[in-house]
């Protein structure tokens, strides 16, 4: 188990302070906007930066003061950092040669990783002869070569186009499940974090705002900022909630709480075709609502009906500061 206890680092205008745990074989995603401290936290755990406070523990061993090479941590960066003059086989074997593995053990380990990452047919190619997805697999295989006790991935799919990212998401998830090593994945992509990780830590301005499973975060966001960051659009301020007969605190109207076609009158403000779904912006009771779903044949200016199941509305906490990042963006 990885334990991060009060780990701190400061820069002008920024302060990181984080405590987290990653269980054996578990994948934790660090999710948050740019500048929230995700990569800084990863570099502190890897030993690439020195913390000002706190400790990093792996099982019963403290890593805080150890050099990066003494931590047995596997690292994969966004640019992969492969050796361009080496073949795939040589890139994977590089760390094993440095660690003076016996030749037969090294061959067995590389063969296993080539099979794990589906790189066998490419073993003798150089990185410039590979696709982006293949280079990503080489970087992962190299990080796993020396049997790391911990795996750290910094935007591992960030350099790939959308189609390739989608293809590799489930493959990367399967590999992480198979190797059973505690893993931290840094990403700014919510769908990537939800697909890969069992737990997600949402960071904002150097602190963990909310931690939980993907389902917990999405269905029970802590406050309006979390809900908005995760893509929820139908947010009510405390005053709007009061006007709707709810307690005077922020609330989320999740999509599943809203039924289209029955109930009170609503007017279509905007329609956006998004391929598999159509997005509608509607005005209802003077509020703006956002809905995505199958084509309904509704266009701006049309009238429809809306019914809200108030039992499915989610109560949110007030923001910890006076600043409100989002309040019902369609109002």
From TrEMBL:
GO terms for biological process: quaternary ammonium group transport. GO terms for molecular function: ATP binding; ATP hydrolysis activity. InterPro entries: AAA+_ATPase (IPR003593), ABC_SmlMolc_Importer (IPR050093), ABC_transporter-like_ATP-bd (IPR003439), ABC_transporter-like_CS (IPR017871), P-loop_NTPase (IPR027417). It comes from Meiothermus ruber. Keywords: ATP-binding, Nucleotide-binding, Transport. Residues 2-230 form the ABC transporter domain. Pfam families: ABC_tran. This is ABC transporter ATP-binding protein. The lineage of its organism: Bacteria, Thermotogati, Deinococcota, Deinococci, Thermales. It comes from the Bacteria.
